[in-house]
Each structure stands twice: as C-alpha cells, then as structure tokens.
Amino acid sequence: MLNIRRTTFIALAALLTGGVAAQASAASLKEIKDNGTIRIAVANEIPYGYMDMNGQAKGAGPDVAKHIMEQLGIKNIKWVTTNFGSLIPGLRANRFDMVAAEMAILPQRCKEVLFSEPNSSYGEGLLVAKGNPDGLHSYDAFAKNDKKIAIMAGADQLEMLQKLGVPGDRMVTISSNADAISTVSTGRAAGYAATSLTVAQLAAKSDKVEAAAEFEDPVVDGKPVRSWGGFTFSQDSGALRDAVNAELAKFKKTPEWQKILTGYGFSEHDAKASFDQSTKQLCTAE
Question: pLDDT of 100-142, one tens digit each?
Fold first, then answer.
C-alpha cells in the first residue's frame, strides 16, 4: 500500500548529510526537560506546519505539538524552518529534536526515523490553471496524454506517479509549494500534484489557478491513496517519541484536538480516519 504525501529518498538523505551513514547523537528526553527547550522543525507548508507573518508557528502539527510540550512541562519551543527534503537529514544530524510537519508515515521513512502515532490523515488533489483548460481530473491522465505535471522535490507524489505509469519526462520538479502557482499559471506544467489540503490553500491565493473539480482519487496497488501524518524523531529518540505518543493519545480523545484539525481545513472524516491505521501498520505496509 502506498500512503502518499512526500517521499524523501535515502539517496537524498545521504546527499544532504554529506553521505555520512552515522547520525549525530540526539538530545535525550531528560536533557530536553532539564534545559526546558525543544527544537521543532517545520517545512513552511500550510496547513501542516509553517511560520506566519508574525513569526508564530502555526498548523496542525505545531498547534498539537504546543499542547503536548505544555503537558510534558517543556516551556520553550525553538522553531526551525527548513525545506521538506531536509527534515530527515536534519533529524539525523541533530539540527532539531522533532519534526511537526505532518510527514506521511511510510515504510521507507520508518527505516530512517521514528514516527509518533498518526496525528492526521489526508488525501490527494490537483492544482490546474483557471478554468481547467486541459480538462484534467486525475493523476492517471498524465500517463495517457502529453501534458506535464509538477511535483515538489522530495515529494511522495513522485513514487505514486511512477506507479501510475507517468513517464519521468512529463514530471516537472519544483523546490517548494510557493512555486506551484507560477508553474501552473504560466503553462510550464498543466497541473501540480499535492495533497487536497495544499491544493486548496494554493488555489485560494490566486485567481489564475484552481483545484481540479471532480478529482478522482488515485488508486495505487489496488487501493485508494490516503496518507497518515505524524511527528518525526531521530532513531535514538525513543523516549521522546514515547512521551509524545502518550500525550497525543490523550489529546486525540478531546474536542480541542479535532477543532485544531478542522480549523486548518481537515475534514471530520480526515480526523476520524487518523485512528484507522497505527504507525506499526503503516511502517510495515507493502
């Protein structure tokens, strides 16, 4: 099963960490508590985890993380922004202690880092030019026509499009979501593949683009695509991961948790579906 958002390849991780296989030692939970400060990274992606115009951390990941840190007695959070493709290498290099980017929990990533239990779930979408001039309503369409589709560097969508049979020469790689509107509106690509939440956020920013209506959910390996996002940790941060899991489990039983998710555009179905898969199941999925 392919649970999709963004796939960070092992080769990319090795490149960004200078090709060093061993990872730097992470701060222990006791050290973090004693210091009263934890470093949490986001990839500046609305609505998952980002810094607003006032320098405040926002998004489904950061808002839930703030509650969890308060419950753990950690009073200060040092927020770190980086590109999505640098999140896993950054954890391995001890540039931060935790990631709150709602990163999709995938078997390949589980070999590189530790994940909390899911905090969210979400599906896919397609950003197209205003009026959808090419009549695009699925990712599969790009396997059958000569149009190009854009994806973000390090994105899950690369592996998904490959499995759907989209040739590599029809994929346009961009560095961040911020480039998607211009890429699509200028015709460099006919569409941009991202989660439905990201697509909706981008469409709201410009009258030159829109979310493809009647979008057909991708079916990969016989199953509809849905991702489950969680908090991410270095492999030697098991105690921190376990502490976060304990507080997350409590918080997810409250209306306040669901209010955070729906406030950022997740549907009630998305919130409910976050309980459908465990991290163990997602990490061992075929």
Answer: 999 999 999 999 999 999 999 988 999 999 999 999 999 999 9
pLDDT of the residue at 18: 41
Could you read off the pLDDT of 17-64 as tens digits, one per residue? 344 445 678 899 999 999 999 999 999 988 999 999 999 999 999 999
The pTM of the full predicted model, rounded to 2 decimals, is 0.70
CB 191 within 8 A of CB 249: no
124-224 shares the fold of 10-122+226-281: yes
SS3 124: strand
Measured CA to CA, the distance from residue 158 to residue 229 in angstroms comes to 18
CB atoms closer than 10 angstroms to residue 99 = 29
Phi–psi pair at 99, nearest 5 degrees: -120, 130
Residue 263: exposure state from Cβ atoms within 10 A (0-12, 13-18, ≥19)? exposed
- Beta-carbon contacts of 195 under 8 Å, excluding residues fewer than 6 positions away, are 5, 122, 123, 124, 125, 227
Record: fold of 124-224: D-Maltodextrin-Binding Protein; domain 2 (3.40.190)
Radius of gyration over alpha carbons of the chain, in Å?
Answer: 18
| Residue 267: pLDDT band with limits 50, 70, 90 | confident
CATH H superfamily, domain 10-122+226-281: Periplasmic binding protein-like II (3.40.190.10)
- Cα separation, 122 vs 31, in Å, equals 34
Estimate the crossing angle of helix 255-263 against helix 60-72, to 10 degrees.
150
* Domain residue extents for the chain: 10-122+226-281, 124-224
Report d(CA 274, CA 7) in Å as an integer. 19
DSSP, res 216: P
Rounded-to-integer distance, Cα 97 and Cα 77, Å: 10
